[in-house]
Amino acid sequence: MSYPILYRSDDIELLKGIVPKHHGIGILTRISSPVVSEERQAAFTLEFDYYAPIETDEDYNIQKVIFDELVKHNVIKAKPNDFDGDRLFRIEDVEFDTINNSKKVTATVIAQADLTANAFQKVDITTTTPSNAFKTMVEKSVVPTPYTAWTDITETSNFTQEYNNVLNAIAGSEGSIIDTWRTEIEWDNFTVRFWKNRGKNRDVRIAYKKNLTGLNMTTSGDITTRIIPFAKIDNGDGSTREVTLSEVVIDAENIDEFFQPLALPVDFSQEMQDAGYTSEAQLRTLAKAWFEKTGNNQPKVNIEVDFIQLARTEEYKEYAALERIALFDTVQVWHDDWGIYLDARVSKYQYDPVEELYISMELGDAKYSLSSRATSDAETKQQLENKFNNIHDFINLAIDKATQIITGNDGGYVVLYPPGRPAEIFIMDTDDMNTAKQVLRLNKSGIGFSSDGVNGPYKSAWTLDGAFNADFITAGTIQAIDIKGVNITGSKIQADEFSAIVDKMVPNPSGGNWIKQGEGRFTVNGDSLLFELRNASGTIIGKLIMDYGGYYILDNQGRQVGGVSDEVVTSHAISVPPYDRQGWGLAGFYIGVDTTNSGELRIVDKKGLPNSGADPNNYIYGNVRAKSFIQHSSEKAKSDIKPIEEAEFFVTSAVEMIMSTGLFEYRYGNNDDLQIGFIAEQTPRPLLAEDGKGIDIYKAVAYLWRYAQEAIKKNQRLENKLNNIEERLEKLERGGANGAC
């Protein structure tokens, strides 16, 4: 899980254009329903709910500060998808729900938010790139800003904008950066990246299946397979001349895939002028590149993927690859109607930054404009008002619609059948039962409505056996004993207790009907949450219970085999289920924090549960295995720092410390394996933990380090002494030799 982090708007690193690595105001651990939504060339937002803490919460003080600081302009760092690094979002709108004591927060990616609020008078530059155009806008803006740009586009063009905000000049107005260079934007915190082609082809192919829950595809777009290119060229004297092709048309490579050529005249006047072209050959070059540039020779597809719905289908594994693609990535889709593969690019996604999974995704065509800020704000505000202030408006709308349809009815025919002794009443759109389509039929068995004549089918009906059939029902309150169906969606379910039973059905080996193999039960009320697993006869084989005291895992005898209880919660400990070494835990062990020893982490059996009051001499400790262990050692966390030579408490000589510390052989607890190590009671105090019952390995390593330093200095002194002796011997030998001569 990856929780977002909240920062104040005046954070010094944010003001410098740096993505903070510290935890700011705090981590948003009480976040609910978070959704990051990004659309190609459009909005990039983060929305979530946040609930206020209550005074009995252990983290009340920090959560109270966080809740109060969820205000406009503050900044949130969150994970936007599975591919990019963390992104910063500036809070744009906060709605406080006084009933539920929560806030609905809407935030926009920081670059879009800040660049909308910055403007300039005029930018007019020639033969420039997208990044240089952005740089010039920023330099001429009335508010200093740390934002920079990057691009892999080398083509140059002219760029002119007047009296505009920076975001609108990037993507939103005629002649904007994406309008001029057709670039694809990545909002990388304080860097705006203008890609020639953002995204990758990750070799993902899918074959669309109709009526598949969670996957919807529509085909649209006007297809062109033959163009008539032309251009009007300025002669420089006020007159113009027309340039056309001698062959008149240019055809797409796939022209034979359709029932006939689909033709369109295309004006290349602007492209010819921008490139300085004047000849027929140059027009032909532009025309041949038109199909590849626009893609207008292929039908356009739009695919909507709901991962939550799709995951419930058997076919999900065929489409799971869609979770491995990112915005702007290309996917090949097999299109049954055309019998061809079509390229579709990811145009929008929704992502849960806490659970780190995709919620939904759309594949289709990109937009080349961003909505104006005023329009966007107004739409967002109206949506929020509709959602939170008028949550039951859909009922009123349904009532109004029904009233208008019924009271505004114009014409119609009432037929009694049979004429002699009527047993049925027909209200129809014609007076002939053979031609009528819209029919309301009423008899002693019920009432029904058909759009296909008097013989039905009657898709909306209310029969005297108590059944009511309808495609859509709008209601303010429904009271029922049982509700049977596939999905129930809505804002809230209120009940004294809510229960659900899911049967596990398997084929009968003997043939015939399926048989029940087991069931799962789910019950929730105001005090607890209960999950039960039962076999076919209804006998409980396991339980998970969650209440205010923690959660508990029970076996079929009602014995607790795992969980986090009151005792463990108070001790800040986690229970490891009592499986043997063939499983994934050690029997009866706990991982906990002993709050009596400065937050010491321990892995102990139940006798040694931190804060349990048990005798530490009876603790049985577990082993810890990891890649590495890191001792936090920053000078920012320390005080009264002085060299070991000036130490007041610790022995300054490592040799003295080592020589006074004995090593022993022993057995630990009931373990038969022989060990070698220290005995705390026979070890000098500077090497011990705070409680005097354990050895501080960090201190021991420090003394070994000190011993190495002392040994190096001693060796250096011995080497110097040896060198002096060798020099003196050499002089004596030379003197003796001279005397002999």
UniProtKB/TrEMBL annotation:
<dbReference type="InterPro" id="IPR010572">
    <property type="entry name" value="Tail_dom"/>
</dbReference>
<feature type="coiled-coil region">
    <location>
        <begin position="708"/>
        <end position="735"/>
    </location>
</feature>
<keyword id="KW-0175">Coiled coil</keyword>
<dbReference type="Pfam" id="PF06605">
    <property type="entry name" value="Prophage_tail"/>
</dbReference>
<feature type="domain" description="Tail spike">
    <location>
        <begin position="114"/>
        <end position="375"/>
    </location>
</feature>
<protein>
    <recommendedName>
        <fullName>Tail spike domain-containing protein</fullName>
    </recommendedName>
</protein>
<dbReference type="InterPro" id="IPR007119">
    <property type="entry name" value="Phage_tail_spike_N"/>
</dbReference>
